[in-house]
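Chapter review: from sequence to fold.
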Amino acid sequence: MSTEKSVNDRLHELAKKSLERTLAGQISWRTTDDEEAFLFAGAKSSLIVDKWRDSDGDLSYVLRLLNPRGTLVESLQTAYVGEPTRADDPWAGKTFEPARWNETLELLYDAARRSALDIDAVLDAALNDLDIEEPPF
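The token string follows.
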């Protein structure tokens, strides 16, 4: 049986590989009914990446893993890990550090959004509409 730590580690690896393949153009994402969520549909599983504002107004991200029937199997979301600020009194307060996967989730969300919305085609169309030559790279 997997522990929460090993599941989170595996989900983090899944997020990193999904990001790599999205940036390389090897996988494509689609829009969903929710304007802030994007879907990758594989042969035997699917992924949804989503964002929202938490109660403090901060952006949070989540990667959801779905089975072939579309049932949520597991998820990985933005998290902050707390450590006691004083060893002699763990209730004195905590300092919070972002979880190691937070940045990956944010980058994956941005890449999935660009893929789903076909940003390159829209940019090309806008440049053509304005009769602007694209700068050489």
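Two observations follow directly from the output. The two ends are 50 Å apart (CA to CA). The helical segments are 4-23, 102-116, 119-129.
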